């Protein structure tokens, strides 16, 4: 039997995606060849890349609006530096919102390129909330934020309206909720939470924000190059891209982002309601900024840790331990997590209360 997989990433994928990906490893499109032993320039794989790129834009509502989607190597961490390389002008500056470990990783890389203004930070409170009422300098080349803070369990709900490109790391909540994605000049996301296996990064960008830096950008880091080469500047991560396409098809078939958002809301509500009701637990993020993807919580009485840990493991739950910088527990309830699995966790929490 499959476990209830609460891992923060790499993380749960839909069962039908795993089955189709496994089948393609053995025989892709009845070709008598494996997906991972054919040329990336073959007709069959080019079709995969084209569909993945167009379906990503379609699901985000960005088709025909001047956007491009790329499936690149390097993880979200490489985007931490590709963003300033491609968008920060030589004498210019960029503005960043510091909402967690990953946001601060992006800030660190930007500083190696030029002036990096941190418009607000919740670091002093161990990132338990999203800063509000910050001012973004209008002469910055771009503003960078992180929509969902995987480690701390906080999520942005308000995005500023700016006259400059807004860049967003959506690694842990891409395709999970409806937003006006056309507000963003560039969105990036490592695949390994809501989209596919590790090894590929989705970059969605408005083409007209490029070409303004005055920098000489190495080809492999140059987003314009990747656009011109249709996301095949070099051999793309074929397996991770194909599996991501399968997840995007799964999402489209079940009704797209609007439908998954409803399901995600129901899962988050079920779990947060129990955390707030059950006297033994406490959420770590402030209520108004709680993430619907990563639910972080603590046991009020640490002496119950062993008992609780034994119970959830016995219920076939996996991956519930919190990140070391927060402690406690983190239930990652990404798109592919069924509400039935959330109910199993809620039942374990109720049982602990009954028997503690
Ligand atoms: N940003 C966020 C929000 C993340 O959650 C992660 C990884 N967990 C990263 C960036 C780094 O991603 P990668 O490992 O793909 O570089």
Keywords:
single chain; 356 residues; alpha/beta; Aspartate Aminotransferase, domain 2; Aspartate Aminotransferase, domain 1; 2 domains; 14 strands; 35% helix; globular; binds 4'-deoxy-4'-aminopyridoxal-5'-phosphate
Write the layout of secondary structure elements.
Elements: E1 4-5, H1 15-26, H2 43-60, E2 67-72, H3 75-87, E3 93-98, H4 101-111, E4 115-121, E5 143-146, E6 148-149, E7 154-155, E8 166-169, E9 186-190, E10 201-206, H5 223-228, H6 238-254, H7 256-277, E11 281-283, E12 294-299, H8 305-314, E13 317-318, E14 329-332, H9 339-355
Parallel strand pairs: 1-13, 3-4, 3-5, 5-8, 8-9
Antiparallel strand pairs: 2-10, 6-7, 9-10, 11-12, 12-14
The structure holds 4'-deoxy-4'-aminopyridoxal-5'-phosphate (PMP).
Descriptive notes:
Pyridoxal 5'-phosphate binds at residues 76-77, 102, 150, 169, 192, 234-235. Catalyzes the reversible conversion of 3-phosphohydroxypyruvate to phosphoserine and of 3-hydroxy-2-oxo-4-phosphonooxybutanoate to phosphohydroxythreonine. Belongs to the class-V pyridoxal-phosphate-dependent aminotransferase family. SerC subfamily. Its cofactor is pyridoxal 5'-phosphate. This protein is of the alpha/beta class. It folds into two domains: 15-254, Aspartate Aminotransferase, domain 2 (3-Layer(aba) Sandwich); 256-355, Alpha-Beta Complex (Aspartate Aminotransferase, domain 1). 35% of the residues lie in helices and 17% in strands. It contains nine helices and 14 strands. The strands form four sheets. The chain has a seven-stranded mixed sheet, sandwiched between helices. A three-stranded antiparallel sheet has the order 11-12-14, covered by helices on one side. A two-stranded parallel sheet has the order 1-13. Strand 6 (148-149) and strand 7 form a beta hairpin. Helix 1 (15-26) packs antiparallel against helix 6. The longest helix is centred in the C-terminal third of the chain and has 22 residues, at 256-277. The two termini are 29 Å apart. The mean pLDDT is 98. The protein binds 4'-deoxy-4'-aminopyridoxal-5'-phosphate (PMP). The site of 4'-deoxy-4'-aminopyridoxal-5'-phosphate has 11 residues, from helix 3.
């Amino acid at each position: 039997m499959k476990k209830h997989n609460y891992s923060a990433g790499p993380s749960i994928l839909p069962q039908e995606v795993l089955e189709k990906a496994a089948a393609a490893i053995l025989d892709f499109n009845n070709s008598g060849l494996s997906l991972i032993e054919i040329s990336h320039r073959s007709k069959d794989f080019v079709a995969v890349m084209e569909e993945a790129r167009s379906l990503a834009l379609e699901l985000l509502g960005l088709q025909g609006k001047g956007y491009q989607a790329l499936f690149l190597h390097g993880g979200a961490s490489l985007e931490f530096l590709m963003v300033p390389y491609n968008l920060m002008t030589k004498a210019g500056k960029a503005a960043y919102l510091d909402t967690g470990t990953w946001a601060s990783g992006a800030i660190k890389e930007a500083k190696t390129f030029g002036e990096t203004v941190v418009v607000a930070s919740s670091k002093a409170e161990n990132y338990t909330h999203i800063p509000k009422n910050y001012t973004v300098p209008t002469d910055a080349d771009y503003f960078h934020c992180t929509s969902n803070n995987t480690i701390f369990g906080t999520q942005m709900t308000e995005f500023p309206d700016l006259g400059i490109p807004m860049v967003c790391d959506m690694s842990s909540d891409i395709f999970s909720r409806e937003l006006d994605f056309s507000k963003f000049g560039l969105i990036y996301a490592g695949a390994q939470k809501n989209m596919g296996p590790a090894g590929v990064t989705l970059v969605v960008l408005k083409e007209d924000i490029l070409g303004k830096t005055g920098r000489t950008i190495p080809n492999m880091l140059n987003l314009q190059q990747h656009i011109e080469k249709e996301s095949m500047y070099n051999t793309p991560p074929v397996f991770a891209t194909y599996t991501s396409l399968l997840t995007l098809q799964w999402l489209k078939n079940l009704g797209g982002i609007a439908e998954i958002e409803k399901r995600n809301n129901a899962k988050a509500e079920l779990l947060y309601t129990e955390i707030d009701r059950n006297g033994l637990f406490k959420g770590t993020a402030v209520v108004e900024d709680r993430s619907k993807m990563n639910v972080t919580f603590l046991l009020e009485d640490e002496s119950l840790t062993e008992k609780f840990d034994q119970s959830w493991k016995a219920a076939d739950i996996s991956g519930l331990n919190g990140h070391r910088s927060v402690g406690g527990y983190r239930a990652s309830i990404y798109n592919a997590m069924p509400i039935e699995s959330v109910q199993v966790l809620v039942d374990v929490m109720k049982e602990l209360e009954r028997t503690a």
